[in-house]
Each structure stands twice: as structure tokens, then as C-alpha cells.
């Protein structure tokens, strides 16, 4: 039995400490996802808190044939969508929270290139539709697999992959176009 299932069983028996362990394990992931969806730190904190209240109150409904992480992300996704609908917010994904691999101590020239790349990425993600933005956010902010993204979003793995690779190809073209314009 995996660690999450053991903790869930303990929570259902009334052990609040086990819920704290679960919350500590997943709180950053949920917050990061919410922040990338909403692009408002305070609202993301509120949504994260609401997600864990729902999880605590509905834990008895969790179906152990699915990964707990996916169930949690699905609740987070729904709360973010509710928030966006309620406040009719126009939002962009925040690139700073998406993980990139680069030298931790870049020189001034490299630092400028990284900032420019982040702006290009932010612009691109900001223009994506809701579903595509969610796929990218799940893939890069929490390292979610295609299978798990499909489960969270109610899509097949194949549909998620097709959208992801289409987005990636579109981004490559967007990035190359931006670089050509920069050189002119």
C-alpha cells in the first residue's frame, strides 16, 4: 500500500496529523498550479486553502483506484476554473514558477537572454486557450505525466499528447519568429 493510501486511511479514522502530512506533501504543488492558472498570489493561496478544505471534507469519496495526486489536481483545477469564472479574470501563466534548466549564476549577457526568453514564453502562454494553458501548466509546474494530465482533465492520453506536441511545435515557430524580429 502506498504512503498516501496509508495516510488517507488514518485521516478517515480521525487522525488529523495524517492530514497535515498529506497537506504538507502536496501544498506547494497545488499552490504552484493555482498560481500558474490565476496569476494572483493571494487568490492562489485562497484557492489552495479551499482545495484542502474540500479534500478534508470529501476524502471519504476518494476512489483508491486513481492516484491521490490526480484527484487532488482535479479538485484544484475545478476550483481555479470556478475562481476565474466568478471574477472573470484575464490571466496569464506565470513563467517564473515553471521549471527551467539553466546556469544558476549566469553572466549579464546570459541573464538578459533568459529574461527575454521568459518574456517570449509568457507572451505565448498568455495567448493559449484555457485547456492548452492547463496542459502546459500541469506538465511543467508539477511534472505531471500525459496519462495523469488526461485523468485530471477528463481527456485521453492520446488527446493530451496531440495537444501538447501541437503547442510545442507552435511555440517553436513563435520563438523563432520572435528571434528573427529581434535580429532586425
UniProtKB/TrEMBL annotation:
InterPro entries given in the database record: RNA_pol_sigma-70-like, RNA_pol_sigma-70_dom, RNA_pol_sigma70_r2, RNA_pol_sigma70_r4_t2, RNA_pol_sigma_r2, RNA_pol_sigma_r3/r4-like, WH-like_DNA-bd_sf
Cite the GO molecular-function annotations of the record.
DNA binding; sigma factor activity
Enumerate the Gene Ontology biological process terms. DNA-templated transcription initiation
Could you confirm whether the keyword Coiled coil appears in this record? Answer: no
Sorted alphabetically, which Gene3D superfamilies does this protein's record hold?
Answer: 1.10.1740.10, Winged helix-like DNA-binding domain superfamily/Winged helix DNA-binding domain
Stretches assigned to the RNA polymerase sigma factor 70 region 4 type domain: 120-168
Top-level taxon:
Bacteria
* Keyword vocabulary terms for this entry: Sigma factor, Transcription, Transcription regulation
- RNA polymerase sigma-70 region domain location, by residue? 22-89
Write out the similarity annotation.
Belongs to the sigma-70 factor family. ECF subfamily.
Q: What is this protein called?
A: RNA polymerase sigma-70 factor, ECF subfamily
- Species: Clostridium cadaveris
Q: What is the lineage of its organism?
A: Bacteria, Bacillati, Bacillota, Clostridia, Eubacteriales
Amino acid at each position: 500500500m502506498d504512503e498516501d493510501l496509508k495516510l488517507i486511511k488514518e485521516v478517515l479514522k480521525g487522525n488529523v496529523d495524517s492530514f497535515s502530512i498529506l497537506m504538507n506533501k502536496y501544498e506547494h504543488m497545488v499552490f504552484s498550479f493555482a498560481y500558474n492558472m490565476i496569476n494572483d498570489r493571494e487568490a492562489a493561496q485562497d484557492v489552495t486553502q479551499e482545495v484542502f478544505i474540500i479534500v478534508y471534507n470529501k476524502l471519504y469519496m476518494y476512489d483508491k483506484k486513481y492516484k491521490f495526486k490526480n484527484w487532488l489536481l482535479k479538485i484544484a483545477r475545478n476550483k481555479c476554473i470556478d475562481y476565474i469564472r466568478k471574477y472573470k479574470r484575464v490571466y496569464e501563466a506565470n513563467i517564473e514558477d515553471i521549471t527551467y534548466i539553466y546556469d544558476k549564476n549566469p553572466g549579464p549577457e546570459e541573464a538578459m537572454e533568459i529574461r527575454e526568453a521568459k518574456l517570449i514564453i509568457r507572451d505565448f502562454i498568455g495567448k493559449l486557450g484555457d485547456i492548452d494553458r492547463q496542459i502546459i501548466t500541469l506538465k511543467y509546474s508539477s511534472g505531471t505525466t500525459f496519462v495523469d494530465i488526461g485523468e485530471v482533465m477528463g481527456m485521453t492520453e492520446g488527446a493530451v499528447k496531440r495537444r501538447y506536441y501541437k503547442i510545442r511545435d507552435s511555440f517553436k515557430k513563435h520563438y523563432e519568429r520572435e528571434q528573427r524580429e529581434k535580429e532586425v
